Amino acid sequence: MIVGVGIDVVDINRFAESLERTPGLAERVFTPAERELPLASQAARFAAKEALAKALGAPGNLRWHDAEVVRADSGQPLLEVRGTVAARAAELGVRRWHLSLSHDAGIASAVVIAEG
Question: 10-residue block means of pLDDT along the chain (116 residues)?
């Protein structure tokens, strides 16, 4: 059963400007491993975190670092959740995540499906 679906798009240039304009933004939003990635990959991960929040009903208490996009050995992007995100997912009965990322033509996007 689908518990929630979220989608988000990010203009990569505007995202880069936000990172430059707001000191500490990358540290607040991304885990250390995510901060090592190229800009387009960071923008896609930001979109994934926003889409994840939407799939969970967009509660205001989720912490950015409680969701991390990692890669399986196959290259497939996966969500690792903990803390506030894991707690909200448990409340809703989420047992599995589906994640798709893309970045092309200056836009990064993500779709998250929460399955119960």
Answer: 97 97 95 96 98 94 95 95 97 97 96 98
91 is in an annotated binding site: no
pTM over 0.90: yes
User: Dihedral of the CA atoms 29, 33, 34, 35 (nearest 10)?
Assistant: 70
Q: Is the distance from CB of 31 to CB of 81 less than 8 angstroms? A: no
* Domain span including residue 32: 2-115
Instruction: Output the domain CATH number for residue 43.
Output: 3.90.470.20
Q: Report CA-CA distances (Å) from 18 to 70, 71, 95.
A: 23, 25, 34
In the chain, count H helices and then E strands: 5, 5
